[in-house]
Structure formats: C-alpha cells, structure tokens
Fold these 4 entries.
Entry 1:
Amino acid sequence: MTREFLKMHGLGNDFVVIDARSTPYRPAAAEVRAISDRKTGVGCDQFIVLEPSRLPGAAGFMRIHNADGTESGACGNASRCIGWLLMEEAGSDRASFETAAGLLHASRADNGRITVDMGPPRLDWAAIPLAGPTDTLRVEAVEHGGFAAPVAVNMGNPHAVFFVDDAEAVPLAEVGPALEHHPAFPERANIEFAQVLSPTSIRMRVWERGAGITQACGTGSCATLVAAARRGLTGRKADIILDGGTLTIEWTDDDRVLMTGPVAVAFSGRLSPELVAE
C-alpha cells in the first residue's frame, strides 16, 4: 500500500500529515524515522496521523510522532495545522479535536492565522514531570554548560525554559541534547532559551525533544510566555519571536493558554511503498 500525505508547516516547524480516519494506519517507529528522514524520506520534524476521535464533538484524534519515532502528547504548530484542515473540511470557523494531552479547540483569527486553545499550563513538579519535589519556578538541580535553574512547564509535554541575555549566542546544538536528557527530566524535556526584549516581546530558540533544533515550537512558545509571566518578566500576553517567525501567546485570566499564528501547506504526495510497512 501507499499513503497520501500533506506536507505542512507552522513557521518552518514542518510535518507530514496522514489522514487515517477512514483507513487505519499505525506506523512503527522505524517507519516514522524513515519517512521523517530529510535525505531519504519526505522529511519533517513531526509525523502526524489523524485518527478517528474517541470523544463526541471532536473531528479527529491527532497522534504525534517525533522524527526519532517516539510519540509526543502535544505539538502546538501541528495543532494549528490540523485545526485549519478540519475547519476547511467542515467549512467552519471552529474545530475541536483530540490529542493525547486532551481536547483542543481551534478557531480562525486575523490575517489567515489560526488560534488554538492549548488548555491550562501544568506547573506542579509531578505534572512536568520532574524526578522529585522541586520548585518549578527555579529547578535548581538542572545545570549544564553555564545554563542553570530553568522554569519548568508542562503544555501537554515537558518544557524547561532558560532565560538568557542573548538567545543568539546560545550553542543550542551543543547544550540542547544534554539538557533534554538531564536526569531531572524522567521523560526528557523540550529546551527553550528565551531573551526578554520587552514586556510584550520575547526572542526564543528551541531544542525539541525527539526532533532537535526546529524553526519554531508552539508548545515551547506557550511554555516560554507562562515562564516569563511567572517570573514577572512580561505580562500575560506577548509575541514570541522564533527562528521561523512570530507566534502570539496569551495566558488568560481563566488559566487558558491561547496560541495564534500562521499555517501553510507546502505540497501533497503519496508515500513510496518502500516507506510504508503495511
């Protein structure tokens, strides 16, 4: 068999998307790695399979595979892409869909952008999760390469946000892998380096768990805004400036994190039989 796919991206954070709502598809980790390979496959940061929903009112279940074959509970940029696809399909301005982290709600915003309600941030150490009881506002046990004491936030997946004077100067490829696998994070972590430019603007670079350096990270942007607001460095709404562009994040007074940004379809295609194990 072969499979039709869409190649989509949100600010350069790119995805292979397969609709498996009518014909089931559960790729093995080796398949995901082969398809995600940028030299011999299609190439992507995350591999997304849209499955039938298990919840009433949801148009589908978004299963997220990292490029290394592992699964993730959340992906903000992919959520905007899936939200857009489902709204286009239904001819609607709103769509709800299920993820491993819970039910998400997408809506159309200005200038063709999409907003996704990513739900409340999880701030307790056990919800991140961390290896033991810790103040998540300053995880003192985490230090590597001169970077220390990040803010820990879970946005459906674990994040560690380090505030720095110059995000561009961070040797991301060197420190990212060690911090992702730091023993304080039993399920590993996404690693963000954030430079506060103003009360409403943050420059952020990211090392994603299971994917490495990416152009943008939606959940990482949400975690960064929450971390900055908790530290009193910004208000509860700011633009997060990423390598691939800008997301607007708002942490509402009723404890919801809203992420707004663009989506794009790069191309469509059909997977080679050699890449599909069915």
Entry 2:
Amino acid sequence: MSCPSVLKFVKRKLNSQETVNLCSEYAGQTLLIVNTASYCGFTKQFEGLEALYSEYKDEGLTVLGFPSHDFNQEDADEGKTAELCELTYGVQFPMFEPTSVKGDDADPMFRMLTNATGEAPSWNFNKYLVTPDGQITHYPSRVTPSDAKLLSDITASLSAE
C-alpha cells in the first residue's frame, strides 16, 4: 500500500514517549487531521470530532489531533492537555505532541497540508481531510465536525476505500 507524502513522518503521542510512524499506522485510511487547542471557543469541537471518530472508525476513518500553541490557547503542560481531552471530552482518537502549524516554525507535515490546499490554519480546529490516495481538502475552524459537506466528503472517501 502506498503512503501519501503527508504521512511520511514519525510523531510522538501526547503526554508520552511513544512514537507513531504515521505511514505504517494510517496509510490506506481516511484521515481528518486537526490542529486543536484547550482554551479556545472552538474547543467544544472535541465532542463532535470524537463522535465522528466513534461513528466511522470501523469504516476506516481516523481523526488525528495536534495541539498547537500558535494562537496562544494551549496549555504548556502536555499532561493538562491530555487530561482535558480525555476527561472533559472523552477523546479516544489519537492525540499527538504539541505542534506548530503556521508560519516559519510550522511542522513539516502542516507545511505539506498548507501547500497541498493553499490554506494554512488561521485559527485552532482547522481540519484537513486526507483520502487514502493522498487527496487533501481543507475545512476552516468554523466548519463543525457535523457539517453536511464535511460528512459527505468523509463518507465519499470511506466508500471509495
């Protein structure tokens, strides 16, 4: 199975020393990659993201969360971020180490997402849908996890797998 370039990275899990090779773990799946924050007006989207993950994970969807302090709304303590995700929002989808998502310091994966779509995260909870064949679509923060177009694109990708 081929691996889209955007997945050719190893990332550390949130509040852990464990690393994940994104290609070996997620190639061939439909992915929703999201830059998250703990103290943002959009933080409640964790609930919708978890609902999406729960509903579609058995069909091949994985949500990948990347906390970012680029907009000054993330805790410096990874343990507190993990606690908020797990205890407050019941997040079961994979969360990774805090990541810069914009500007000169942007993580290479987020640079690739930005280059592929022409859209850098302008705020927290930007979403990038990555299909198994590597097509990438951007959805801004205001697009909620229950948005009809996002759901339609997810189900189309899942049915094409």
Entry 3:
Amino acid sequence: MSYPAALYLGDKGETTGRFHLADAAPDLLIGERTRVHYLATGANTGGHYGLYRWEMGAAPSGGGAHFHRTFSESFFILNGTVSLYDGEAWTDHSPGDFFHVPPGGIHAFRNSHGPATMLVLFAPGAPREGYFEELADIVGSGRQLSEEEWTDLYRRHDQYMV
C-alpha cells in the first residue's frame, strides 16, 4: 500500500488545526442517557472520517445489530464497560479495547454495566450526525415510529438492521 495522492500542495504548511476541549458541552443529548460530542464530522474533515465521543449514562442504552454499506465503524473504549456484538456474540470490553467493523460487518453496542464512554470513528466521513439528531428528536418527543418509518429512517442513513 502506498500513500494517497497529496491533498495539500503548498510549500510551508498552514495553521489550520482545531481543538475540541474535553470540558466542552455535548453537541447532542439523546434523552437523558447519552451525550454525543462531534469531535470531527465528515463535513469538517473533507469527508475523510467522522469521530464522535459517545458518553452513555447509567441506564443501559445502545443500538441493535446492524451493518452499513458505505462506511466502516470503529469503537475505542475510554472508560466503563461496553458490550460489543460482532455478528456472532456479545462480549464485554474495557478501556483501551478497540473494535473495527468494515462495511457490511454486523455489529452493535450497549452499556450493560453502567456508565461508559467510547470514541466512535466512521470512515469515510458519513454524515452520521443527521441520524443521531433524528434519534434524539424521536426520543425527546416520545414519538412512536411505525415499522415503515423506522425502515425509512435506517435506509436514509445507511443502516440495515439484522
């Protein structure tokens, strides 16, 4: 494998880095149980990747088994215990554990054992914040979706439930 084509063609470099501080308020609350920090979205990385800090509270939460067709998803556990599903079995993971799922790979996550925080990386940088924001709106409003509405939501966001 070789390096990709150059994305920056200047000679001296530029001061273009941006910080997201640890004590920043979350960008999104999903109900009372999940705080999401948009560390780097596909929009601000030129579509290369999206990186999110996912803070789950004490009540169990997480997504059901699914796969994506257009991007990979990776999880890095920062604190607590996160249960991860690899398409065959659920296993518990602790700080420092990493799980990479290529496109098409069945996966799911859950904080079955109390509060936990992880980094979630999408590559390339799909616009996942739109999906997260729709979920937050559904949870916040208490709205009950029909099976057809869930199917449409998932389809629009490249999420195929298993």
Entry 4:
Amino acid sequence: MEESSKVMQEQRMNLFVTLWAKRRILLIVTAAGLVVSTLIAFLMTPLYRSTAIVFPAATSTVSFSEQRNAKASSMDFGEEEQAEQLIQILQSSKVRDKVVQQFDLWKHYDIDPSDANKHFKLVKEYNSHILFVRTRYGSIQIDVLDKDPQLAADMANKIVDLIDTVKNEMVMERTVPAFQINKRKKEMLEAERDAILKQLDSLAGLGVVPLESRANLFQAYVETKSAEDKADYKERIDINLKYGALFDGLEYERNEKIMKLSDFNQSYEQAESDANTQFNHKFIVERAVVADKKDKPKRLIIMLLSTFGTFVFMVFLLLIQDKIKELRKLS
C-alpha cells in the first residue's frame, strides 16, 4: 500500500515537473487559443430568439350527437396525443413551404436557387433556426432564431397562425368528399320521398283514401238511400279496391323514407359542419415578441471552453511527447 502511494506521488511530481518545464509553450498556446476563440466569438453573427407557446385543442369539430363525449368539448385542452400530432403538423413541409414563401427564406439564408443541393441546405438552415418542443405541461413551444429580431417574432407568430390554416386544409381533404357523398345521399332520399308523395297525390286525385277512411265508404254506401249517392259511393269503393293496396304500400314507403331521412339529417349536418367550418385548433398562451437581447452566441462561454480545451489538449500533447522521449531512451 505504501509502495503504491509512493508511486502515485512520484507520478504527480513528474507531471508537475514536466508541465513546469514546458510552462512557456503551454502559456503561449493557451493564450493563442484565447485570442483565436475571442476573435471567432465576436465574428459570429448574433441570433435573437422569439418564442410563442400554444396548447392543442382537444377536438377539431362540433358534435351534433346527443351522446357526445364530454372530453370532446371545444373548450378542452388537448393531451399528449394531440400535442404530438400538432408537432408533426408544425414540422411538416406544408408549414415549412408557406413560411419559406412568405419570408423569402431562400434569399434570407443566402441559398443559391441554382444549387443542386438547395433543398437540403434550406431544410438544414430552417431546422437549425426554427424549433418545436413539447413542454412538460403539454403545450408546444415554438422557438425562432434569427439575426433580425423583428423577423424572428414575425415568423414565430406566422407559424402560430398557420396551425389552423394547414390543419383545416388537411381536414378538408377528407371532410369535403365525405360531405359531398352525404349530400348526394340526402338528395337521393328526398327525390325518392318526393316521387312517392307525387304518386300518392295522383291516387288521392282519383279518390283513393287511406285505409282507416275506407271503412267509412262502405258504411256510407250501406246507409245512403239515394240511388245516385249509392252509385257514387260504389264508384269510389271500386277505385279504392283497385288501388287501395298500392296506396297502402306507397304510404308505408313514404313513412319509411321520412324516418330514414330524419335519422340521416344528423349525419348530414355533422358532415356539412365538418366540411364548411374553419375550426381553431389551438389555444394561444403567448405570442412571440421582438427580442431585445441576443440569445446566441454566448461569447464568454465560448472563450472559456475554447481556452480550457486548448490548455487540456496541450497538457496531453506535452505528456505524450515526454513519454515518447522516455521510450526512445530506453530503446
């Protein structure tokens, strides 16, 4: 135990002696690292951060069902699933393309339109300047970094506004065709009902009456004393006997169509609402404001880390150099 302790002390002493002997070159290189890192830090373009915070909405529709889930209220905040969906929309090319076009980011990021890798460079710059993060509270934080603080705030607020625009476009790609199908179905049911009503009107014009009224015709025929009235009732009875079954069948079909149309109206109203209403899909907690202080670079941190890194690197380099000399002497 004592021997190992002595060995460690000797190694420490050798390390100190080596560093002390090389103190001049160590200080010169470390100072050079400080100067270089200082120049680099002050040459870096300062970036300003603007932040907006939104909560996803729990639902993106108005329900017409009486059995509506209580969690589907338009006043409820979304949970983890809705937050993840919202992040996917924010990271989509639909949002990115609109932001790029609105703020002419090709020019702003100095990307040559004729460059073969222009899309790769644009996406790289975009993703390094615009960040979407889900917070521990379930909200979405939208951070925009840019050398122009006003532009950073404008871009963050524009992205917030694009949430509704893009999601409504995506929703309408499905809801509009669904509404068109429901509309055609409703028109078909109404046309079938109207055709039945037209036939019933024609039969009623001939003197055909509903089933419950036909018994009165037979009773009136028996009770009447006038030959003329008997002939009239006889004619009406014959017409009802001839067309009565058809009339009853049409009445049954009419009632079925009316009930079916009444039940279908709820589905139709839901589809119409989904297709024609522009919903708000988020709650805005905080809009972005113009930053009055730069966010990056942290010059002091860059200088300290670079200087410390240079010092550590030189220590290892000198120790390796000293070890190589020892090995050469032994060989």
